[in-house]
Amino acid sequence: MMGRTDRRLRLVILLLVLVVGAGALVVRQAYWAIVRGPELVDLATQQTQASETIAVQRGAIYDRTGKVLLAGTAYRDQLVAYPDQLTPAEQAAEATSLVSLLGLGGSDATALRQKMTGNAAYVVLEPALTADQSAAVRAGLAASGPDQLTELDLVPQPYRVYPDPGGAPGTTLANQLLGFVNASGQGQYGIEQYYQDELAGRAEVIAGTRDVNGQPMQGAQSVVDAGQAGADLQLTLDASLQLQVEKELYAAMVADGAASASAVVMDPTSGAILAWASVPGYDENDYQTVADTDAGRFVDPVISTIYEPGSVMKLFVAAAGYSSGLIKPTTRFDDSGTLRVANGRIYDADRRPMGMLAFQDGIAYSRNVVAARAAATLGKSTAAASRALYATWAALGIGTDTGVDVSGEVPGLATDPSKSPWTPIDLANHSFGQGVAVTPLQLATSYATMANGGFRVQPHVVAAVNGQAVTVPTGVPVLSSAVSAQLRALMTHVVTSVPYYHAGTYIPGYTVAGKTGTAQIWDNKTNDWVPNTFDFSFVGYVGTSGPQAVIVVRLDHVQPKVIAQGQFQLAITSYQLFRRAAQDTIVALDLPPQAATASGTAAPALPTQQPGMPQVPDVPPPSTRP
What is the pLDDT of residue 225? Predict the structure, then answer.
């Protein structure tokens, strides 16, 4: 007889095992549900939901009429393939067909064959096809039989286009002002960079649910961000004037052998830029080639490089003297030809004395000695006179940004004498534009203030964004209207009292006024002046009965054909270039002539040499570099 077996202990042990197991399961489930739950939900969402970013079209840029397109968007097809859907033999055959259709050779053909080889699910074969290449691929996709192309797509891709040719060969219109858009859609330089956010807009974002095969489910999509289309810009720029000014600059640069030539045309009462140009420039549609070969062309000489402007700065001495009442147009100064100051000596261009001259005549004939003597009278000491001249510089915008709505502006170089005291030779040199560095746009803004009644305006190039006018700060009064009138009279005196300036700037029926500037160029590498090389400028205005356009022109690094004491010969002088730009401005703005002008009714013949007078009388050869 078998003995009795007690199962109670085994049942208890089994029950404990079940309880422990169930508890472990509960703990594990709590871990996944509570601790890892949010993470698992995110993973599931990522597998079943997807977001799609849809780029918006970049805004266009138009000239002031709103009709001339300066920058827009076009589309090129991107060629993509799905190699994993083809057998190796099919991949090789299709690659051979594409190489032939696209006209590829060498490394380009090799690269396409390599991309078509393997098991990649998606590959970009060509980022941008030409119109003919796209047509050939479409024909291949539509064909039947052995010529048919399969497992390919043409995906339209936007790119920036600048449709207008510029005034110089191989350039587009207003290239350095506009800048360009790189392959990533980012504006580079100029307006494209400054207005990047407005032009680019904001992409649309759509979220949706995908099925087990990864395909979007109908009715399961929602807009996360509706996005915003890129804004269109309407500039203050006149396209026809811009083109003509570029042509004038190119002609002058070639004729004079200049390294570059620049110009700005600005409305002196509003600060609106009517033309803004430099040569040499570049083709924005081919910016990558420029980046690889001569990236320096991206830098805009109008606002991004500085230079010593020479005698155009003599008007700042006049502004300081007239404002203080210490100098009047008829105040007489001794033009001794040379002038020794405490730590150096300065010279007139011809080093010939003209004797006692009225201040306005000394400025008209651009006598350095007169400018230096006048600057010294601005204060009872060199320190006081220096502060007075610098204060006028600062009030008129020298040494500070103009605030223009274009990327890349630099403030110039103007030493504050309260921080770094000027010596007597510094004050003398500064009076005729050496030892101070400016941009052409600063000069345009400063001369606009002198001419417009004394209001410092903010230059700007954008008039409207998406049809909404841009608010521009009102002008700030920095000179009295009486001083402004005196400065206008002085600028008019320059071009009417000096015969060769009169002949070189005269436009029948229009008021013309301004000042020349010629400056030696300092080489920091050699610590000396660049031999026989100069910057030539002219700053002035044109109008019917008053200033309607301020114009700055600059010829950079010019070696005159003939150099004699006080005499240069250029194929096109700065003031003749100014006149050409002024005539173009008159046509573009449709300014009617007046019956008589302050410039007189007839222009004298241009003399080859004025007895006792310098032909281009504003070349400073100071012996001491400040």
Answer: 66
Instruction: Using DSSP, state whether 57 is helix, strand or coil.
Output: coil
3-state DSSP percent of the chain in helix, strand and coil, to 5: 35, 25, 40
Q: What is the pTM of this model?
A: 0.83
CA distances from 259 to 279, 557, 621 (A): 9, 5, 22
pLDDT at 602: 44
* Rounded distance between C-alpha atoms, residue 626 and residue 620, angstroms: 13
Q: Which candidate, 339, 340, 387, 386, places its Cα nearest to that of 367?
A: 339
pLDDT of residue 417: 97
342 to each of 428, 498, 588, how far by Cα in Å? Answer: 10, 32, 51
Distance from C-alpha of 193 to C-alpha of 181, rounded to nearest angstrom: 8
Residue type, 496: T
- Is the Cβ–Cβ distance between 599 and 520 less than 8 Å? no
At 223, is the secondary structure helix, strand, or coil? strand
Cα distances from 78 to residues 92, 137, 382, 424, 602, in angstroms, run 20, 11, 68, 66, 64
- Per residue in 483-498, pLDDT (tens digit) is 999 999 999 999 999 9
Instruction: Please give the full DSSP string across 581-593, using - where no structure is assigned.
Output: HHHHHHHHHTPPP
- Model confidence over 80-96: pLDDT tens digits? 999 999 999 999 999 99
pLDDT for position 47 = 60
Name the residue with tokens 């909404």: 468
pLDDT at 4: 52
Q: What is the pLDDT of residue 211?
A: 58
Residue labelled with tokens 């345009």: 444
Given the DSSP bridges, would you call strands 61-62 and 233-235 parallel, antiparallel or unpaired? parallel
Q: Cα(231)–Cα(57) distance, rounded to whole angstroms?
A: 9
- Cα–Cα distance, 365 to 495 (Å, whole number): 10
For the chain, which ranges sit under pLDDT 70?
1-8, 12, 19, 22-24, 26-27, 30-33, 35-37, 40-54, 206, 208-226, 562-567, 596-626
Looking at residue 202, its amino acid is R
What are φ and ψ of residue 37, in 5° steps? -55, -55
Which residue, among 354, 407, 365, has the nearest Cα to 612 in the 3D structure?
354
Nearest 10 degrees: CA dihedral of 315, 319, 322, 326?
-90
- In order, the DSSP letters of 498-567 are SHHHHHHH--TTSEEEEEEEEEEEEETTTTEEEEEEEEEEEEEEEESSS-SEEEEEEEEEE--SEEETTE
Burial (0-12, 13-18, 19+ Cβ within 10 Å), 424: buried
